[in-house]
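Support case: S-adenosyl-L-homocysteine complex. Customer-provided input:
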Amino acid sequence: MVIHQIERRGIRDKRVLEALKIVPRHVFVPESMQDSAYEDGPLPIGCKQTISQPYIVALMTSLLRLEGEENVLEIGTGSGYQAAILAILAKTVHTVELHPQLAEQAAAVLHSLGYDNVHVHIGDGSQGWEPAAPYDAIIVTAAAPEVPKPLLNQLSEGGRLVIPVGPSYVQTLEVWQREGNQFTSERDIPVSFVPLRGKYGWSEEEWNR
Ligand code: SAH
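Agent response - structure generated as follows:
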C-alpha cells in the first residue's frame, strides 16, 4: 500500500510513510470490509460515513508538516484511523466526532492499540474544540462550505489547517497558516469527502442541492 499508492504518487515525508506502515488499517474497518482495507480507495464505516483513501490520509497528514511535539486537532474521527496516524507523528491528538456511536467505537479501537495520546470527544467539531486550544495543526476530514472561523482562531502562531472546502462530489483541499492575526491559504488537489455538519457545516438541503 505504502510503496504503490503513496510513495509513487510523490509523498516523501519519511515519518508519514513510516506511520502508515505501522498502523494496522484493517482493525479500523468493519469486519466485512477487512479484506479490502489496504486497497486504493475509501471504505464505508457505518452511519453513512467513510474512512478516507490511504493516499488522501498520507497527503493531508504530510501537509500538516508534523515534527513530533505538536498539539493536534482532528475534526471527524470516523473510524479513528487518521487519529492513529496523527498519534504517532505528534505529541497530543484531540479528535471530535458528531456521531456518538462512531466516537465510542473509534475510542475503543485506539485504546486497544495503545494510542493513549489520542483524546476522542463527542460534539460539533465545526466549532473546533476550545478546551484544548490552541493547536499547532488542525485537520478536517469532512467537506466544509467555507473555512470555519473558530478553527482559524484556535490555531497557534505558525499553526497549519488542512481542510476540504466545497460542495458535494468535488471540493478543493485548502492549507491555511496563521502568522500573527493574518491567515494565508494555498489550494491543493481536488478531493471528495462526506459533508461536515454542525453550525459551520453543510445543511442537508444545501448539500443535496
Ligand atoms: N478521519 C476519519 C474519516 C472521517 S469521515 C477516519 O480516519 O476514519 C468524516 C467524519 O466526520 C464522519 O465520521 C462524520 O460523522 C464526521 N463529522 C461530520 N460533521 C462533523 C462535525 N460537525 N463534527 C464532528 N464530526 C463530524
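The pocket of S-adenosyl-L-homocysteine is lined by residues 49-52, 75-76, 78-79, 81-82, 96-99, 102, 124-126, 141-142, 194, 196-198, 201 (CB under 6 Å).

Case will auto-close in a few days if no follow-up is received.
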